[in-house]
Amino acid sequence: MEASGGAGGGGEKFVYRICTATEWEDLQKDGFTHGGELDKSSGFIHLSDHNQVLSTLNNFFRNTKLDLLLLQIDAGKLGDGLVYESIDGINSFPHFYGPARSFSPLPLDVVIKSDKIVESDGQFGCALLG
Questions:
Q1: Cα 110 to chain center, whole Å?
Q2: CATH of 3-125, one of 3.20.20.80, 3.40.50.150, 3.20.170.20, 3.30.2350.20
Q3: Is 90 exceeded by the pLDDT of residue 115?
Q4: What is the pTM of this model?
């Protein structure tokens, strides 16, 4: 897996987190999240660039019955804990490890906006997707 540090990997100011309503509620209540089971077993928080959100939704959330939200995150506030990693030699995704790759929780203060993701006629949408 090829890695590059910092938010410059994708050239974006924001990265995005697809989360469940429960994760979002816990993040607001606790002030941080360690993500879901996949994040915990991977040792980092899975994120996407704006242009990756729809493919991530289609590949991993197509048949979910859970309420989903999209969080817009200020990539600059994640510092060098944000790492872009190549997953297949072509596509690089942002992952948040935290300082010194210590699997730090994602803090609430990095979230700029949130919006409910809706699925209608097999298409995902939300205001943050444009």
A1: 12
A2: 3.20.170.20
A3: yes
A4: 0.89
